[in-house]
Amino acid sequence: MKGLSVFNKLVFFINTLVALALLLAYLLPYIPPVTFPFLAVLSLGLPILFLLNFIFVIYWLLGLKRQVFLSLLIILIGFNHLLSLYKIRSLEAEVDPQKAISLMTFNVRQFNVYDWLPQPNLKARIGEFIAQEDPDILLFQEYNHQEAPDLSQYAYSYLPVLKGKASQAIYSKYPIINRASADFKNTGNNALYADLVIKEDTIRVFNIHLESLKINPSVKELQKENREQLITRVGRSFRKQQQQTEQILALVNQSHYPSIVAGDLNNSAFSYVYRRLSENFNDAFKMAGEGFGKTFVFDFIPLRIDVILTSPAFKIIDFKNYSEQLSDHYPIKSTFYLDNSVANK
User: Fold this and answer.
1) Which pTM was predicted?
2) 139 within domain boundaries
């Protein structure tokens, strides 16, 4: 601290707090939310903490001050976290088109039935978008049975109506031989799964919709919220998400089939629930994505809260983020194939 002006001493003090906050955020994926639910909120702000520390690095670097090493070291320690935030495009793998399987997941917010987005004919536009992209497997969260567009191109579907639950849907071009609901308790959220027969193989697909954080994505609205009440509510949601995640993993472990877990986490890729779900899976975005991978409409944070996770038996060929704003979520799609040499081990 010697040789620093009073102003720079203040800047370094703030820098230290921000650096420690980022370091703590690195640890949160390993701390169950039931332990310190209020701390889990930090994981949502990790992209901002990365940016602030980067700004401090530039500030001290321009001043040729050794204080640059504090934030630089913290950023380097968590370099792997950057792979969850931003991905440089990798080369697409070549595969026999007959083996390729594509899956899209999309939280459609009930097809805009309550006019959240001031856009006309949104249901028809979603239908046109699906027809154009033509995924083999299609997962919807916040599905509305009455408002759904024509999806007759899919010969098979699982569209349960569950009392007290926000609806979800699984559409497939492959036969469905088994289906069920995870039936999360004391919540309107849920997860579905279906076993699909693809030629001589069977796979299990999970469509998940974890507990909502009930946060208005507008910064202006967030500023109006009581901070203590906000943190308490989000912490409560994180605890429920942890319970729901363990329930999903139990169902995954019960299955003898290669599995895909996809849908809306309602949490970031820096969270405990993401780490638990992805531990034995490949994240399609990390394998073949590009850019920030943003999937949720937020004022300034590139949140990636929708995922496609595949067991190692699947080889990822491609991953695509879409920029069409047809909901408060952006759809994502991945293409992959089943490697029987791995699946049969």
Assistant:
1) 0.90
2) yes
